[in-house]
Structures are given as C-alpha cells and as structure tokens.
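2024-03-11 09:14:02 DEBUG pipeline.ingest accepted 1 chain
2024-03-11 09:14:02 DEBUG pipeline.ingest length=296
2024-03-11 09:14:03 DEBUG pipeline.predict start
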Amino acid sequence: MTTVTAPPPGKRRRREIGRAPQDTRGNWSTYLALTAVLALSAFPLYWMFVIATSTDEAVSQTPPSVVPGNQLLTNLREVFTMQDVYFTASLINSFIVASVVTVSTLFFCSLAGFAFAKLRFKGRDPLMFVVILTLTVPNQLGVVALYILMGKLGWNGTLLAVIAPFLVSAFGVFYMRQFILNSVPDELVESARMDGALTLRIYWSIVVPAIRPALAVLGLLTFVATWNEFQWPLITLNGTEFPTSMVALSDLASGNYVIYRRVLAGAFMATIPLLVLLVLGGRQIVRGIMEGAVKS
C-alpha cells in the first residue's frame, strides 16, 4: 500500500503563489445588466436635456418626442433674463456656499477624525457616541431653532445663514475616523512624536497625505449635498436677492402655469457643475471608495 505524502509547506506556498490568476471578466449577461442599469440611470438626464431643448408644442404633444430640439439657447436666454428669479446670481451663490462648506468640512472633519482615531483624551468614546447619535436626528427637527438662532445673529436672508450651520458634519467626522484608523498605523504616529513633531505637524504631514482618497470622496458628497440643499435655503433666503440654484429653480416652477422647458433648462444648467466635478474627480473618488472597501 502506497502512501501519498503532502508537499512541504514552503513548496505548497510557492506553488500557490505561482498559480495563474483566475479570469474575473464577466460574461455577456453581466455587461447587459450593467448597460441596462446605466441606461436607466442616465435616462432622466437625457429626458431633462430633451425638454430643455424643446418648444412648448413639443413638450405638450402626445406621444412625447424623445429627440432633442434646437431651442436650448432660446430657453436658457429666457431663464437668465427673467425678472425676480436671479438665476445667474443663484449659480454663483451656490458655488460659493458649496465650495466654502466643502473646504470647511474636509478640514474640520479630518482634524476631528484624527483626534478621535489616534489621540487619547478623557471622554473620547462618549463624545464619539454623541457624534454618531446625532446622525439619527432628522435635520427638520432643528429648523425652527436654527431659524431663531440665525435671526438673533442677524444672518437670516444672507449666505452666512446657509454656510454656518454646515461647516462640519457628523457623518464626515465618523467617516474620517474610520478611514484614519485603517490607513494610519499607530507606530507611524508614535515615531513622528518621538522625533519631536507636534500634533498639527503629524496631522498635516502624515495623516493628510494618507487620507487623500477619503477626502476626495467626502468632498464630492459634501459638495453635491450642499449644492442640492433646498429646504433650509428656501426658508432663510426666501424673497431675497441671494437665492441658491435650488431656490431659483423653485421660483421658475412657481406660478399658475409652469413652463417646463424653462424649468428643465435651468435644471440642466444647475446640473452641469456636478457633472464636471464628477468627470474631474471620478478616478480619485473610485480609488477612495475601493481603498476603503479593501481596508475594511
């Protein structure tokens, strides 16, 4: 009777390492499903563009036309020249608000996330629990108190009332903490501290370069959420000459008769900055999502 002996662990490991990687390419059904999902996701944007380039007759016809028209410039000219809408100013205001809030969120959330992840101080875990607990509270519950506070500060009707409440987010703090825990080794922080580096120096020279992908993801989410914010700007900026793009779109859609080609032409212009941001930072954003998935 012959006995079969197993190869030594070293040879087995070398054999496994040298094994050719499996083909992970999908079959035709995978590409078909992805194409269907992409088409369904892109169709609202395409339909918005179709209505934005059409006339009133083309919008109201049955069945509706699915081919873009040639009235985009005419519709955009009407949107930008309408009185009491201030659409040009609304785009500028939205860009200012979204940019300031995004930069502030990235700085404060990454700094707080670094403190919660790598620093030792009394009450750290209870404070982190409170931060996470605030995620369960709807923003609508604090609208009245926030409006009263902004009124006491004299900020209602100005961009400060839209910027100040969103300079830092609980989600951003939690997200940065989790990413820093997995991306920055404790030994690296301790060695920098032994070399005489101060806390802010460690944060700027070691932590920030390591979390750039996460900053890209958080920056995109914050910019898009701030740009699309509607409820609070409508409350505090209603009737002023400093609306944001979403408030201006609501003004376009108000009235007894809604001209949909104007509304969707304005929506098309308000969507372009988000599409440009996605194209410019798409690779960094995907990298940040994938790194977070692998490290978790």
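2024-03-11 09:14:41 DEBUG pipeline.report Confidence is low (pLDDT under 50) at residues 11-18.
2024-03-11 09:14:41 DEBUG pipeline.predict end
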